[in-house]
Amino acid sequence: MAILTNFTVGYMIKNTSAILLIIIILISCAGQSNKNTFTPEHDHGVAESEKFIDVLNIIETIDGAGNNSLPNWVNTYINGGIYAIERLETFNNKYVFLAVNRGTNFNVLNKWAENYSAVYDFPKLAASRIENKMISSSSRFPDDEYGLFFEAMVKNAYSAEYPGAVKEEVYWLKVWFENENTFEYTENYVFFVFISIEKNAMNSIIRNMINRTSAAVTVTNAQSSAINRLRQSFFEGF
Fold first, then answer.
1. From CA 165, how far away is CA 117, in angstroms rounded?
2. pLDDT in tens, 147-162
3. Does the pTM exceed 0.70?
4. Nearest to 195 by CA among 84, 115, 99
5. DSSP secondary structure, 175-208, as one string
6. In angstroms, rounded to a whole number, what is the distance separating the alpha carbons of residues 132 and 210?
7. What are the beta bridge partners of residue 197?
8. DSSP string, 48-107
């Protein structure tokens, strides 16, 4: 909303249309305050399946098998995203996280994947997923709905430890990608670091985090009610 100086207001009030304009602007701004503009692009803080890989464009894979025998979780991710992996019988009692990196320098990407740590790097993925859940569960700006709890919870999520997180596998693909500007195809490597954690363990960590955070901040009655609703529904669709 633009800031109106005393001079500007005095000048605008001289005509009726200007007064109506001011009223419309104020109403518009008031209405926007209740809108939730936080729309996360990805539910888990990583590149969810957006059909960004065409299986037919896969040139090479880590095991040299080509696109005809991709691991089930890779094929499932490409076609349905992380939630689809979690619905597989193998992982139905686990949360699945993928760190995804893409580029032309194989050695750099390979070193990144090798050094990716379930202890030191995974908290970023976990915290992003927690933050996105809080955002999607809020009916307006999260820091309005949850108060100081929102920022404190996010900070705690990023600094937390997640014992039980396991670096399951590293997998890479070599893929043809079309340049949107030149319409030329270039070869890129796509690396996946697959991490899982038992749902019971993750849920326990998050519940304790919610309880510690809510006990450490001061919030209004309305915000306290919103936090309690979040506590009760947090794991629905998480």
1. 10
2. 999 999 999 999 999 9
3. yes
4. 99
5. EEEE-TTT--EEEEEEEEEEEEEEHHHHHHHHHH
6. 15
7. 95
8. --SS-S-GGGEEEETTS-GGGS--HHHHHHHHH-HHHHHTSGGGTTEEEEEEEEEES-HH
Tally the residues of the chain. 238
DSSP assignment of 134-177 equals: HHHH-SS-HHHHSTHHHHHHHHHHHH---TT-EEEEEEEEEEEE
- For 192-224, how does the pLDDT look when each residue is reduced to its tens digit (9 = 90+)? 999 999 999 999 999 999 999 999 999 999 999
9 vs 7: CA distance, rounded Å: 6
- Give the C-alpha separation, 199 to 197, whole Å: 6
Q: Which helix or strand (DSSP H or E) is residue 170 part of?
A: strand 166-178
Q: Which two tokens stand for residue 117?
A: 């740590």
CA distances for 77 relative to 27, 59, 98, 230, angstroms: 45, 18, 9, 28
Q: Cα(125)–Cα(139) distance, rounded to whole angstroms?
A: 24
Distance, CA of 58 to CA of 79 (rounded, Å): 14
pLDDT of residue 51: 57
Helix then strand count (H, E) for the chain reads: 10, 4
Structure tokens given for 56: 């037919």
Q: Identify any residues that bridge with 174 across adjacent strands, giving them in sequence order.
A: 60, 189
Q: What are phi and psi of 100, to 5 degrees?
A: -120, 135
Tell me the CA end-to-end span of the chain in Å, nearest whole number. 35
Give the DSSP H/E element, type plus range, for residue 218: none
